[in-house]
Structure formats: structure tokens, C-alpha cells
Amino acid sequence: MANHKSALKRHRQSLVRNERNTMVRTRIKNVVKAVRSAVEANDTDLAASTLRKATAVLDKAATKKVIHARTAARRISRLHAAVNKMA
Prior knowledge:
mainly alpha, Small ribosomal subunit protein bS20, RNA-binding, rRNA-binding, structural constituent of ribosome, 0% strand, 3 helices, small ribosomal subunit rRNA binding, Methane Monooxygenase Hydroxylase, Chain G, domain 1
């Protein structure tokens, strides 16, 4: 464990950021799962609405640097492809 005042503060900050990032990653998993389950159920309306929500969550996570921007773009692209394949 750190002993310097600044190192202790950095450790506290890292714990807070880690918890926040974990929540964002969990949210990403849940919205992607919702889109996938709507596609599996062939529910076009639900898939479209959850896709909009998933796109917003992924873009925000990329903006906050929780996930890489290209990772977010790739996931959004794959979800769009899955939803478009339904129609």
C-alpha cells in the first residue's frame, strides 16, 4: 500500500474510477443482450428501440474512454447488421 499523501489519493481515485467503469461495462453488456434477445424473438419494434438505447450507451462509453472508440463502433455496426437482417 502507498504511504505518500498523493499516492493514497491516487489509490482512492483509482478505486472510484474502477467502480464507475465496471458499472458502465455492465450496462453495455445488458443493453447488447437486450438487443440480441429482441432479434432472437423477431420483435422488430423492441429491437429498434433497444438498438437506439444500446447505440447511445456504447457511444457514451467510448466518449468517456471506458471502451475504445473502434470497439464501440464495431459493436454498434454488428448490432445494426443483426437488426437490419430481421427486416
